[in-house]
Amino acid sequence: MCTTMSALAATSMLNVPSETGPFSAAPCALTRTDAHHSEGLDTWNAAYPRPSRTLDAVMVFLSFPDSHPLTTPAELAADHFPATSRFFQRASYGRFTLRPHPLRQWIRMPRPSTEYAIQRDWTVAHRAAYLRDALAVTDRYVDYSRYDIVYLVADPDAPGVDSDATKVVNLDRPLRADGTDIRRVVTVFENHPPDRLVLAHETGHVFDLPDLYHRPVDGKGDWDTHVGDWDLMGSQFALAPDLFGWHKWKLGWLEPRQVRCVQDAGPVRLTLEPLGAGPGTPVTGAAGAPSFGLGRGTKLAVVRTGADTALAFEVRGPVGNDAAACREGVLVYRVSADTRSGRGPVEVIDAHPHTEACWEDSVYPPLADAPVAAGESFTVPGTSVRVEVEGRTASGAWTVKITTG
Predict the structure, then answer these.
(1) Distances (CA, A) of 403 to 184, 245, 256, 306, 373
(2) Fewest beta carbons within 10 Å, which of 20, 157, 214, 233?
């Protein structure tokens, strides 16, 4: 195994290849840019595994000479699976399966945990030493050529382990093991039990999804001002953590016919299905009775607003991964393909800017009631784009009118 590496960074790789996607011809598909985890989706960044099939993930458990583990690998694996696989199974409408392969034993690192100086903003040198040592000691136990994703799980009770340091490490130059290039590794330093859905969030980065939270400059203040509860990549604690329809489009989980590009200036009427409703998912319709007839209709409407920007419209409510959603209705958000991860590439637009909701449970109550409810209309600030939610169908879909001029 070759462990020679250059700089390690949580940034995108240079000169990444691309693959044409089924969405490339859509007039509202923003062009992918050089921004880290760009929200452009006209092509797929082939440096990342695409979750359009079953992907295999290995979980490797690392102990340290300065600590005796108080948990077992099986207990730590159960912290994350099957919950993580179930999240993606629902989010993808069954199109993607994440298959975990946890090792059964601890593998000891050569140095004490404190020597790696593990922390959220890790130095390149310490991070490189950790990865180099981890792959060196685990290579005899793992055939890395068999796996699409690598999770390195540290003993949560070791004194040098910082639970705030869990993240994906991208490599400018891949590591080499078992004849395969390892371009990114998920380093897991979570407590036992861990933050809810934290591994699903980090796995989203493995699929080229950006951080949607706002990180205060001094580390203090509110982190959830951009999207609130409305996407896992904003917060793993969200009440409605299902991925935005834009992300499902990017990942290939929405078929082209499920995305409507609104181009006409005049009113365009359309029927939107709840984003979380897959085939066979019960959704309460206008008549109050559950319906199972949704799942393959239009999920996302998009208005192109510039070369790198768009407005997206989707129905969110207590369905699927969003079972605990605070409010339901048509959620409106801005997308910018030229804004990098962590800088606000997606921003939810609040249709009720003077109120908040679910203040006891929401990660950001001002946006908890952001959707446009049935019977309401809303003009997007700074634009002439107006959305009117006319009502509900008996099957549970929503009838919507969008006017762009």
Answers:
(1) 43, 20, 22, 17, 17
(2) 20
- Please report the pLDDT score of residue 148 as a whole number: 96
Structure-token pair, residue 338: 């030229």
Strands 329-336 and 300-304: unpaired
Tell me the two tokens of residue 79. Answer: 């912290």
Burial 283-311 (b: 16+ CB within 10 A, else e): bbbbeeeebebbbebbbbbbbbbeebbbb
Strands 268-272 and 398-403: antiparallel
Q: Which residues contact 98 (CB under 8 A, 6 or more apart)?
A: 51, 54, 55, 57, 84, 85, 88, 89, 149, 203
- pLDDT per residue over 24-70, tens digit each? 568 999 999 999 999 999 999 999 999 999 999 999 999 999 999 99
Please, are residues 371 and 329 in contact by the beta-carbon 8 Å criterion? yes
Q: Are 330 and 314 in contact (CB under 8 A)?
A: yes
CB 298 within 8 A of CB 271: yes
The model's pTM is: 0.93
Per-residue confidence (pLDDT) for residue 5, from 0 to 100: 35
Strands 300-304 and 268-272: unpaired
Average pLDDT, integer, range 207-232: 90
Do residues 208 and 37 touch, judged by C-beta distance below 8 A?
A: yes
Secondary structure of residue 8 in the 3-state scheme: strand
